[in-house]
Write a structure and sequence with these properties.
The protein is α/β, with parallel strands linked by helices. It folds into two domains: about 40 residues, no CATH class; about 180 residues, Peptidoglycan recognition protein-like (Lysozyme-like, 3-Layer(aba) Sandwich). The protein is built from nine helices and eight strands. Strands 1-5-4-7-3-8 form a six-stranded mixed β-sheet. Strand 4 and strand 5 form a beta hairpin. The chain is globular, with a radius of gyration of 20 Å. The protein starts with 6 loop residues before the first helix and ends with a helix.
């Protein structure tokens, strides 16, 4: 015997099925069950007039690599006070092509972590978590001798990952002995395009959130968590801060 599904239920199912493509007309955030229910309760004529969802994103960023937000982020309660810079690559599993964007996204998804932005080697900025949500990127650490930020920096920082490989010292915990010297030199460090995009993105963030553009507020992951090594020895902080000033 077939069960007849009410029209309301069919609409909810349809909306949830759209999660795979992550968008619905007029809505730029992923459709969760709760959002689907909210939309389903609206009259049909109102759906096409839905306002854009309140997702803050750098204007030049692509949304193509958004993480599953319900699993890797949560709603932000506090305005960002810091910007945290990281590096990432898939060099452990793919030394020939360590910057494949799908592989980089998989690193976050498979490890249950996330970041707000990823800057590729050519300077392309990808949004992985909207700014109005907290990303899981800072981990444990301390900052400014203030207990407010102890192990809670995710709540207060925008995370930016640069597709890069650090120095041999930075990478020694990830690569076996002798492997670093075999890497393509073009894969090491950071590109001019990345510095340019990073400076533009950080400047925009600091202006919008009134974050001071100094080393107390634009910090490396390694400064917050000393056991970390990113952005590491090869990152030129003078290029970022000089570009901003």
């Amino acid at each position: 015997m077939r069960t007849k599904i009410p029209a309301f239920g069919m609409l909810v199912i349809l909306l949830l099925s759209l999660c795979a493509c992550r968008q619905f007309p007029g809505v730029t955030q992923p459709i969760t069950k709760e959002i689907a229910l909210q939309i389903a309760e609206l009259p049909a004529e109102a759906i096409s007039d839905l306002p854009t969802a309140p997702v803050t994103m750098y204007k030049n960023a692509s949304e193509a690599y958004l993480c599953p937000l319900e699993d890797y982020s949560w709603e932000r309660k506090y305005d960002p006070e810091f910007v945290m810079v990281h590096f990432t690559s898939a060099v452990v599993t793919n030394r020939e092509d360590p910057y494949d964007p799908s592989a980089l996204r998989a690193l976050f998804v498979e490890n249950g972590v996330s970041t707000h932005y990823l800057i590729r080697r050519d300077g392309t900025v990808l949004c992985m978590v909207p700014e109005n949500r907290v990303a899981w990127h800072a981990g444990v650490g301390e900052w400014l001798e203030d207990e407010k930020y102890t192990n809670t920096m995710n709540e207060y920082a925008i995370g930016i990952e640069l597709a890069a490989i650090g120095s041999e010292t930075d990478m020694e915990k990830y690569l076996p002995a002798g492997a670093y010297s075999q890497l393509d030199a073009a894969h090491l460090g950071f590109t001019d395009a990345q510095y340019e995009s990073l400076a533009a993105l950080v400047t925009d963030l600091c202006e919008r959130y009134r974050i001071p553009m100094d080393r107390e507020h634009i910090i490396g992951h390694d400064a917050y968590s000393p056991e970390k090594h990113d952005p590491g020895e090869l990152f030129d902080w003078n290029r970022l801060l000089t570009a901003e000033s």
